[in-house]
Automatic annotation (TrEMBL):
<protein>
    <submittedName>
        <fullName>Uncharacterized protein</fullName>
    </submittedName>
</protein>
<feature type="binding site">
    <location>
        <position position="234"/>
    </location>
    <ligand>
        <name>Zn(2+)</name>
    </ligand>
</feature>
<dbReference type="GO" id="GO:0005886">
    <property type="term" value="C:plasma membrane"/>
</dbReference>
<dbReference type="InterPro" id="IPR007822">
    <property type="entry name" value="LANC-like"/>
</dbReference>
<dbReference type="GO" id="GO:0046872">
    <property type="term" value="F:metal ion binding"/>
</dbReference>
<dbReference type="InterPro" id="IPR020464">
    <property type="entry name" value="LanC-like_prot_euk"/>
</dbReference>
<dbReference type="InterPro" id="IPR012341">
    <property type="entry name" value="6hp_glycosidase-like_sf"/>
</dbReference>
<dbReference type="GO" id="GO:0031179">
    <property type="term" value="P:peptide modification"/>
</dbReference>
<keyword id="KW-0862">Zinc</keyword>
<dbReference type="Pfam" id="PF05147">
    <property type="entry name" value="LANC_like"/>
</dbReference>
<keyword id="KW-0479">Metal-binding</keyword>
<feature type="binding site">
    <location>
        <position position="280"/>
    </location>
    <ligand>
        <name>Zn(2+)</name>
    </ligand>
</feature>
<feature type="binding site">
    <location>
        <position position="281"/>
    </location>
    <ligand>
        <name>Zn(2+)</name>
    </ligand>
</feature>
<dbReference type="GO" id="GO:0005975">
    <property type="term" value="P:carbohydrate metabolic process"/>
</dbReference>
<comment type="similarity">
    <text>Belongs to the LanC-like protein family.</text>
</comment>
């Protein structure tokens, strides 16, 4: 019966209707977003909760419908053919690497640490050209993340070859923890990094796999190994799924694909959230997991599931969900929901913003 529903849902007429529904919702939400931004003070420049995230949304809208700030600035200036400004952003971005690689007080996680910087380098390289960021620089940053993880693992005598912590807590999810760090380390293509991928990153992914709950969900931290509760991109299966998918692509082992499918099953069962509509800890972020599996497998089931989560988001504000601390931002607020809905219009090219490439 499920297959029949999916096949009917995928007919050209319904495809056209659902695209129109999504487009109308995007237009309405953009009106609300612009009105809301008029009252914002604009002093937060970050990708995740500030103006750089709004800029990233507009790059996305431009492409679909017709560190972080430095990387985004470089891409914007590249698109506008402002070569001097582009070069300035890239030079300043690369110039951060000494501090990033040597400052032991700096965390490694994605939102505030070395891996976020690594993503900025990869983002600039991906959207402008490989020649604009030296692969040796990317490998150096990745190696500093490896060294940090190995050092903590040895100090704590952990079973996992790489261990990381943020605010003295060993998180496991995509935002602050090992899943996000390993996923982004697996994006590094420099041949000099291959040994680390096979001897340290892959065994760490295997250790993470051993922690997956029978439900398919995943723990949020070392201190919560028995708590099958959170279904968020930042904490739980919706963030871990990207690590498993990338491991399957790199190492061609079916166990990683099966782990990703178990993640998707629990997201489908429990991933509509009253916490909000955003991408960090909301329904839109959970919907991205289905788009990732759809791109990998071309199974229409996952596209159907992504759109059903999209339907919830189309009715933004009508479910009694909590208001976000930064209600118009990319990761917590409306901008991220708009980003997800826009990706539903072109699911084969969908990417979780500021995380996937």
């Amino acid at each position: 019966m499920f297959i029949v529903v999916i096949n009917y849902w995928h007919t050209s007429k319904l495809k056209s209707e659902r695209k129109e529904n999504v487009q109308r919702a995007i237009n309405k939400l953009l009106e609300k977003l612009y009105r809301g931004l008029e009252s914002e003070d604009g002093s937060n420049y970050t990708v995740y909760t500030g103006t750089a995230g709004i800029a990233l949304l507009h790059i996305h809208l431009h492409r679909r419908l017709e560190s972080g700030p430095l990387a985004i600035g470089a891409v914007i200036n590249h698109l506008l053919k402002h070569e001097d400004d582009r070069k300035s952003c890239l030079d300043r971005l690369a110039g951060l690497h000494d501090t990033v690689c040597t400052d032991r007080a700096l965390p490694d996680e994605a939102l505030n640490g070395r891996v976020g910087y690594l993503y900025s380098l990869l983002y600039a390289q991906h959207h402008i050209g490989e020649e604009v960021v030296d692969n040796a620089l990317i490998s150096k940053v990745a190696s500093s993340i490896i060294d940090s993880g190995r050092r903590l693992s040895q100090q704590e005598q952990c079973h996992c070859p790489l261990m990381y912590e943020w605010h003295e807590k060993k998180y496991l999810g995509a935002a602050h923890g090992i899943a996000g760090i390993l996923f982004l380390l697996m994006q590094v293509k420099d041949p000099s990094f291959n040994e680390s991928l096979h001897t340290l990153v892959r065994p760490s992914v295997d250790w993470m796999l051993s922690l997956q709950f029978p439900s398919g969900n995943c723990p949020s931290s070392i201190g919560s190994l028995s708590s099958d509760k959170l279904i968020h991109w930042c904490h739980g299966a919706p963030g871990w799924i990207y690590m498993f998918i990338k491991a399957y692509q790199l190492f061609s082992d079916e166990k990683y694909l099966e782990a990703a499918k178990r993640c998707s099953a629990v997201i489908w069962e429990r991933g509509i959230l009253k916490k909000g509509y955003g991408i960090c800890h909301g329904t839109a972020g959970n919907g991205y997991a289905f788009l990732a599996l759809y791109r990998l497998t071309n199974d229409q089931k996952y596209l159907y599931q992504a759109y059903k989560f999209g339907e919830w988001c189309i009715n933004y504000g009508k479910h009694g969900c909590r208001s976000a601390d930064t209600p118009y931002s990319l990761f917590e607020g409306m901008a991220g929901t708009i980003y997800f809905l826009t990706d539903l219009l072109d699911p084969s090219n969908a990417r979780f913003p500021a995380f996937e490439l």
